[in-house]
Every structure is written in C-alpha cells, then in structure tokens.
Amino acid sequence: MKKIISVVGARPNFMKVAPLHKAFQNYSDTIEHIICHTGQHYDEKMSKIFFEDLELPKPDYYLGVGSGSHAEQTAKVMIEFEKILIDEKPDLIIVVGDVNSTIACSLTAAKLHIKVAHVEAGLRSGDMKMPEEINRILTDSISDYLFVTEKSGLNNLEHEGVDSEKVFLTGNVMIDSLVNYLPKADSSSIHADMNISKGEYVLVTLHRPSNVDILEQAIKLKDLLNTIAEERKIIFPMHPRTLQNWRNFNLIDMLNSNIIITEPIGYIDFLSLTKNAELILTDSGGIQEESTYLGVQCITLRTSTERPITVEVGTNQLLGNDLGKAQDAALNVLNGQLKKGQIPELWDGNSAKRIADIISEKI
Ligand code: UD1
After folding, report:
1. What is the phi/psi pair of residue 183, to 5°?
2. pLDDT band per the 50, 70, 90 thresholds, residue 109
3. pTM higher than 0.85
4. Ligand 1: which of 40, 212, 287 to mutate, most ligand atoms within 8 Å of CB?
C-alpha cells in the first residue's frame, strides 16, 4: 500500500484537492490518500463551508497555523508539517496552486527526500512582487512531478530547464470541480435570497495586496466601482483582508448604495453567481479560469496574469495597468460588446483522473 498526503491551506486549494481525493478512491486498494489542512485559512466562510460544499472529508490532519507575516506563516506550516511527514512517512505529497502552504509543505518534504507532486505547475506572471510568483517558482524547482493546466506552463518549465519527463499537461482540476458541481449550482437560491436577477449584475472580487493594501489604488478602485454601479447592481463578496483594509481607509461608507457587500460566499452559491454574471471584475487567479470556462465576460484588475490562456482564447481582458481603460471596457461589455471565447484544451472535467492515473503508475 502506497501513501499520499495532499495539502490544502487556503480557499483556492479546496476545489483543487476535492476532485483529486475522489480520483484516488479508484485506487483505494493500492493507495491511501490522506488530507492535511494547514489552517492558513480558518474562518468558517473561508474554509469549513468549502469542505461541506465540495463533499470533502474532515481532514486527517489540521495544523491550525492561522494568519501571520509570510515568514511566520510559512515557518509555522513547515514545523508542524515536518512532524506529520516523520510520523506518516508518505511515498508522495501533493501540493496545489501557489499559496504559502504550497511552498512550505513542498520544501519540508523535499528536505526529507519525500517526493513532491505540484498540481497547477508552470504558471508564471513574471511579477516577483507577487508572493504567489515566488511560491510557484520555488515549488516547481523542487517538485518531482509537475502537472500543468495550460500550454504556457509547458513553455515556462522548458525555459527554466525542468526535465520534460517530469512534466505532464493534464488540464485543470479546478474545472473538474466546476463541471461536477454546476448542476447543484443551477439549483442554488442565491439570486432569490439576494433579490437580484440573473444576467443583470456585475460580480466583483478583490483581495490582492497590490489592490487592497495601498490607499491610492484602493481609492481608484472605489471610484471605478462607483461609476459602474450607476449602470448595474454590483455584488461584492469581500475577502477579510479587503474588508479590514477598506474599513481602515474609510472606503466602505463611500461606496455607492447599488454595491451590495457580502461576507465571503461558499463554493456552490459563488459558482451560481459567476455563471450568471453579466460581467466579472476580479484580481483572482481562479476566477479568470472559471469565467473563461463558463464564457462569462471577465475584466482582470491586475497588470499581469499567470494564466495567459484566459486572455488568448478565453473571455478575459487584462486591464489593471489603466483603470480608465478598465472602466471603458466594463461599460462596453454592459452595452453588449462581448469578447468571444473558447474553452482551453483538456479543461474537460477529467484532469484529476489523468493525474491519479499517472501518479499510480509512477509511485
Ligand atoms: C492567500 C494567498 C493568495 C490567495 C488567497 C485566496 C498566499 C501568499 N496568499 O491570500 O494567493 O489568492 O489566499 O483567499 O498564500 N484572514 C481571515 N480569515 C481567514 C484567513 C485570512 O480573517 O480565514 C485575514 C487575516 O487578517 C489575514 C489576511 O486575511 O492576515 C490575509 O490572509 P492570508 O492567508 O495571509 O492571505 P490572503 O490574502 O488570504
């Protein structure tokens, strides 16, 4: 019997590990699949609700690490995760995405000579000011198996000299969750609960430090949202980091009353809001991909994206450099000027199965 530990830490990890967990159930005779939650995200609305929505079992390990500076958070995860690795002696650990838990756990395992698989490898924004970019590069450099979502990832890894035998284009596990839960999302009551009409609102998410931690940028974004709110209702589920900062900046009271601010929203209801939005404004990585899959118009309020396929073939427009341009593009979409898009290769709901098949052969 082989043993694998998959790591989750922050909100964008849960929908990636859920389909992997399910895929490894097909190998339950030969592989034991264990889930470790670092506790990087811990609020009910940032963590527990996702376990329920995604039908994930209670994690086998919960490290309870919580918030802190980058060094504190990363170090705490490493100290706690090392104890589990020494105890469990897994044959492989799986990390997903690019959060601090991803690099912390892969680094801990690599130093103990335990093999590491990175799911969502090879993505690069080219912006070393993003903590996630540092996490991505370092995790890829110590991984034994690199599972890639889009072709740019293959090119980036080749360019960095990663042995192509370790690299597999397997598609997007987050899209596996989307495909699986779309029928459930279609029966969500969130629109009735919020008294909004499908197809007639703008959905906003913002949480990147470069957007929400800096006063001047936060003011510009507040102005942009207020202009758009003159045309349509805006639904803005607020990340705790954004709420905290924008409260300190006294920006919350300055938002147009057509902007509905809510707490973070669970997976199924948020998927329903995404699918039925007329337009999405975001700085998230995952939402760029989900909107591309669903063919929903998306404007990304960042200066770079590590997911270029969403711009090249999808419905995403990258317009964070110039918020005046972003405003014009948003108003154009609301006037019916839509960007056509297609679904990227292998984003078909079967990525986790491909990954489990490869791993079961290799370990
Ligand atoms: C982290 C990831 C980011 C990801 C995002 C999704 C890193 C470096 N960043 O950013 O890539 O896009 O998650 O949400 O790993 N907080 C709470 N409750 C929680 C979690 C956080 O109130 O359950 C607050 C705390 O004040 C905390 C702050 O949010 O200090 C930031 O949390 P943290 O996990 O450090 O980073 P995120 O901004 O969430």
Report:
1. -60, -40
2. very high
3. yes
4. 40
Residue 180 buriedness (CB in 10 A; 0-12 / 13-18 / 19+)? middle
Instruction: Read off the tokens for 358.
Output: 């490869």
Alpha-carbon distance 6 to 285, whole Å? 21
Residue type, 337: Q
For ligand 1, which residues put their CB under 6 angstroms from it? 10-12, 40-43, 46, 67, 98-100, 131-132, 207, 239-241, 244
State the maximum Cα–Cα separation within the chain, in Å, rounded to a whole number: 60
Mean pLDDT of the chain: 98
Q: Which residue has tokens 């900046």?
A: 249
pLDDT bucket at 321, cuts 50 / 70 / 90: confident
Q: Which domain holds residue 189?
A: 182-334
For residue 122, give the amino acid letter: G
Judgement on whether residues 95 and 152 belong to the same structural domain of the protein: yes
Of 315, 327, 326, 268, whose CA–CA distance to 291 is shortest?
315
Q: What is the pLDDT of residue 341?
A: 98
Q: Of 37, 41, 207, 239, which residue is the catalytic one? A: 207
Q: What is the CATH number of the domain that holds 220?
A: 3.40.50.2000
Tell whether 176 is covered by a domain. Answer: no
The three-point CA angle 101-102-105 to 5° equals: 75
